[in-house]
Fold:
Amino acid sequence: MIYYIQNENDGAYIYPNKKRANFTALSVIKNICIEHLTSLESYLKAVKNILDSRYRIPIVLSSKYAFFSTKAMRNIDSIWINYFAVKEIIYLEKTIMFIFDVHHRLEIEISSKNYQRLVGLIFKVLKYKSSLE
Structure:
């Protein structure tokens, strides 16, 4: 399971194994979308039509992968976190600590309100997908 994808000086790294990708984190997300039989652009267009949201849309691909970006999607400093890999969340004053396991944790500057909005969107997409079955 992928915990998160983060850009570093020499390319993107996929955690927990710190596997190096030869391109950016956004490109990794695009490739994961293709593996799940959609393009990122098509997914975003469909979700924008279905939900009343236009920005920072989480990428919900399966019951295993639901990625959200910590900043604007095309921002090189954005980290893509897999919601389903997070084991614990600690709300701090101006940040949120995402704990994946004993060795992997991220402290991200994101408001609890924005995080709750992202989680709400993830569950709306999951509910919509299940209604199609």
